[in-house]
Fold this sequence. Notes:
By secondary structure, this protein is an alpha/beta fold. The chain has a single domain (21-201), classed as Rossmann fold. The chain has helices at 25-32, 37-46, 62-69, 87-100, 113-120, 129-151, 166-169, 192-201; strands spanning 16-17, 22-23, 51-55, 76-80, 103-107, 155-157, 174-176, 182-184. A six-stranded mixed β-sheet has the order 5-4-3-6-8-7. It has a two-stranded antiparallel ribbon with strand order 1-2. A hairpin with a 5-residue loop joins strand 7 and strand 8 (182-184). The longest helix is centred in the middle third of the chain and has 23 residues, at 129-151. The radius of gyration is 18 Å and the shape is globular. The model is unreliable at 1-9 and 16-20 (pLDDT under 50).
Amino acid sequence: MIAIAKARPTLESAPLRGDHGAIDIDAANHALREATPAEIVTWALSLDKRAIATTSFGVNAAATLHAVVEQAPSLPVIWVDTGFNLRDTYVQADAVTEQLGLNLHVYSPLITAERISAKLGGIPLPEDADNHRWFTEKVKLEPFRRAIADFRPQLWFSGIRAEETDHRRSLDIVSLDHRGIIKVAPFFYWSDSEIDSYMLEHGLVSCQHYFDPTKVSSGRECGLHTSV
């Protein structure tokens, strides 16, 4: 008996199912597994959803921004500026915004960094659970909720990658958050070295010194992808 191989879904056949245009997440991820970031962005934009991209202006954040705005130059890019970034992050943010012509929208905490530092005595460590939770809410989660309320996105381009945290390894290129927003990560399966090569190939500016005060150390979540 001859075994018949199951056909791989194509990018054209994968996106939708049902009467309400719901995304078939499993089919989409299967079809996109070997796709390039550009192909993933093209697929996502073809869904014709209200879209945003987010950035931290972290080490190689420009890669995702480049892949997205190359096809959607006017797409809103959301940056939550906690007020606690290092100088290099602000320098890179200005350089990448100019280089890529970003339609950048900056959301900042309603309370100043100085006031927060005075209240907490500096940036709280994750071990100081109550203060760290309060800090994360004020500098990251609340500003991002304002951005979501303002733009009401149905599609969210993100720079998350599988190798970054345990939580992200549980996701995929396409996922659905609790609000029903379709999250798309064009570089999800890329390694650090592959991202570095992409940055070099396209002459993109990298942030050499980056620190996220809501994570403190690598391998942690800031809350944007787990708590908002």
